[in-house]
Amino acid sequence: MASEEYLPVTLDSRRLLIESSTVKEILGRCVFVRVPHATAQVPGVVPYGGTVIPLIDLGALVTEDGDSPGEVVRDRTLVLDDGDLVIAICTDKVREVIRIETNEARESLRPIAAFASREFELDGHVNYVLDLGGLIAAARLAGDAGGG
Amino acid sequence: MGGDVGRPYLVLSNGNDRIAISTDAVVTVGATGGDAPDLSEHDLGLSFAAAGRFRDIAILSDTTTVQLRVGGQMDVETRSGDAYLPLPESFFGRTPYCALLALGGDDFALVLHPQRLSRFRKQLGEMHHLSE
Predict the structure, then answer these.
(1) Which residue of A38, A50, A85 is in closest CB contact with B92?
(2) pTM of the entire structure?
(3) For B91, phi and psi rounded to 5 degrees?
(4) By Cβ atoms counted within 10 A, which residue in A12, A62, A68, A122 is the most buried?
(5) Cβ within 8 Å, pair A47-B95
């Protein structure tokens, strides 16, 4: 039976699963350089490995009005690679990688659906699988629509 | 306005944020730029104003000259960076900034790009015009 590995993370009260193959590195507290006039969804950059990578604020992307819930300091910075682009996201907690049978997944019908194509129920909680490609596309779209 | 390491930049600091302007784009520091329009806090997204005497920094913004009024107590110095780190164009192409200049340790300055600044001011002006 097919299974996949995921990195479980929490963001406020949400539980997210990130495909472990996309995780390059887990860093400490989220420290970034704010870029004025950038969007709420991509408020700045994280210096990383001699370059800078965009920080995508999941909190801003999953709220309906697109605003981040204030200047929240997150304890963990994840560096993710979707194959084309390396980005950073900030989360509150990161747990150890888990393996899940893929047939346990169901289509996500929640407001977070734009960034989570599937969800799993684990320990009585809904866990959304982060759609990294969709997340990056949405962040770029937000920049096109409201940047500047 | 390239980003060679070792190229001198005028670095302005307000204690929290820093911006760097290539000295190629700086016309004068300390004197007024004549009738050049002022760059506002809204243009930069940052404030460099402070109590006391002002210094005016004239910047060549594309083909026109604009002037940035910096509070007399603000830190203004010429520095070269340890590294020039371009911002990802697809996310930050609309901002007036094009890169981070690494200044050692965890210190970075946002590199103000003259052509982008000009474009940004033009867009702001058009938005202002449309809202009237």
Answers:
(1) A38
(2) 0.84
(3) -105, -30
(4) A62
(5) no
